[in-house]
Amino acid sequence: MTGITLNIPLVICQVLAFVPAIVLHEVGHGFAAYKLGDPTAKRQGRLTLNPLAHVDTFGTVIMPALLMLMSMPVFGYAKPVPYNPGYFKNPRRDDFLVGMAGPLANLLQAILGSFVAFALDLTLGNATGMAAQLVDSMAFQYFYWYFLPLYVMINLYLMFFNLLPVPPLDGSSIIALLVPRKHLGTYYRIQQYALPVFMLLVIVVPYVLHVNPIGAYLDVTAGTLGNLLYPHELF
Q1: Taking the complete model, does pTM exceed 0.90, yes or no?
Q2: With bands split at pLDDT 50, 70 and 90, how would you rate the model's confidence at 27?
Q3: Catalytic residue among 17, 26, 149, 163
Q4: Annotation marks residue 26 as catalytic
Q5: CA 189 → CA 82, 90, 183, 184, 185, distances in Å?
């Protein structure tokens, strides 16, 4: 039986990149809802940056671990931030804005990671003394060559994955613009419980049928944008 060999530093970098990506994604949803008049997330303590408040056993732990073991793009989800469209002045428009706030948070993080990489690129060649020793350290090498590229790509994977217009992903908020007002309550209830089922399909279908349309979509979208943003070719 062939054992699975894990690159422990790489796994650590993946975890450290993944956690802020999903936490800020969910906080983005909650903050947008709060600014639009809905206090639900704030009352339930979900505007915090504490990862423990956002952990979902399957989406935050089990699924990313399975994807790592299967050498697939690492993404997942945190416990969805609750919001009540009944507080919104314009439920259709505001639901769309809340839905887009999560992917926007991921895009901003990807831009930040790329900016840090560009800034380091400009200074590495001129490093002397203690700075040069820091650059040569193993910790810096893992940060520069592993963490930063992973941070950018994981955020882009999360952004483009969530932009798919399929319930219950964030892109489905576009659908809410078309659902008759009297059916919005039912639509929101279905959306709340559909995510685990959908994510299981995302993992099982490629494994069983050996066809991975989601992976191809992420390569074209996240992969292309990542290589445009980042100073070096990504993975």
Answers
A1: no
A2: very high
A3: 26
A4: yes
A5: 12, 19, 10, 9, 6
